[in-house]
Structure formats: structure tokens, C-alpha cells
Design goal:
The radius of gyration is 14 Å and the shape is globular. The chain has a single domain, classed as Rossmann fold (3-Layer(aba) Sandwich). Helix 1 crosses helix 2. By secondary structure, it is an alpha/beta fold. The protein has 8 helices and 10 strands. It has an 8-stranded mixed β-sheet with strand order 3-4-2-5-6-7-8-10, with helices on both faces. A two-stranded antiparallel ribbon has the order 1-9.
Length: about 160
């Protein structure tokens, strides 16, 4: 295993755990939960390995790579890993207002309208959540998850750039 792979494995485990703390509107979830990945890096592989055979409640998890707007919008959870901020913002705009839980890396992610992000802290990370973005997506986040996260809001100027 490469030395940095454990960070990705840990984040994949968090994504898996986070899903059970999200409530989608009635009728949105089909017979499975689709977790998509768009961007660069080994996160898709980490999710693929971790999610094999996993379920959330009665629903199996399906992992997909998402490259197009339609593929991104077909996900219930979309993990975005673009090192280029303009590509990240563009991807967030593709799913803005849809019922897709967006998850990313770093503080700017939630400022640009992402819902949940991993923020580096010491040698690990913490979660930051943008409840405004969740509300726009008609998603309800459990108070238990909110209680362990930093709550942030949109940077309106960043979402309009």
C-alpha cells in the first residue's frame, strides 16, 4: 500500500458513514445508492474497494465514475476531487440545486457551494458542512453529523465567479 493511500481509505470510510446521516426527499433514492467520483487521484479506487458488498439499510452501494453533467446528476453522492478550483466550481454548478450530496476536499469546496468537505487538521481532517447548500439540494443532514462538523456558509462572491 502506498503511504498516502490510508488517507483515501479513511475518507472513503467517512463517505460511507456520512450517507446514513443524510435524508433524501421521498422517492429520490432508487433500489441502490449511487456514489460517484469526478476528478483526479486514487479516491475512486479507495471507494471501489471499500464499498464492495456494502449497504446502507437495505440499499446496496454502487460506485461509478462521473464525467458528464448527466452522470454527475445521476448520483446520490458525488465526491469531487479536482485540484483545479475552476473545474471544481464548474462541477458544483453542474449539480447545484439537484438532490446530490456533494463531498470534497478543503475549505474552498463549501465556500463554492459544496455540501460536505474534508478540512485538514493536524495530521488528520475534520468535516465542514454547508447547510445552505444542503437545503438548496433538499437534503436533510442529521443533527448528530452537524454536531461533529464545523458549520460554514456560502461565499456568495465565490459562487458567482
Amino acid at each position: 500500500m502506498e503511504p498516502w493511500a490510508s488517507d483515501y481509505d479513511l475518507k472513503a470510510a467517512f463517505v460511507y458513514s456520512i450517507v446514513s446521516f443524510i435524508e433524501w426527499p421521498p422517492g429520490v433514492l432508487s433500489d441502490r445508492i449511487v456514489v460517484g467520483f469526478a476528478g483526479e487521484g486514487p479516491m475512486a479506487n479507495a471507494m471501489g474497494k471499500l464499498f464492495v458488498g456494502k449497504r446502507v439499510g437495505s440499499r446496496p452501494i454502487e460506485v461509478r465514475e462521473a464525467h458528464t453533467r448527466n452522470e454527475m446528476r445521476a448520483c446520490n453522492v458525488l465526491l469531487l476531487a479536482y485540484p483545479d478550483r475552476s473545474r471544481m466550481k464548474e462541477a458544483l454548478m453542474q449539480v447545484r440545486g439537484t438532490m446530490v450530496l456533494t463531498v470534497g476536499d478543503g475549505e474552498p469546496f463549501t465556500k463554492y457551494g459544496g455540501i460536505i468537505t474534508f478540512v485538514p487538521h493536524n495530521n488528520t481532517f475534520r468535516l465542514a458542512i454547508n447547510p445552505q447548500a444542503a437545503e438548496r439540494s433538499h437534503l436533510k443532514i442529521s443533527s448528530k453529523l452537524m454536531s461533529i462538523a464545523t458549520v460554514v456558509s456560502d461565499d456568495e462572491s465565490a459562487t458567482r465567479e
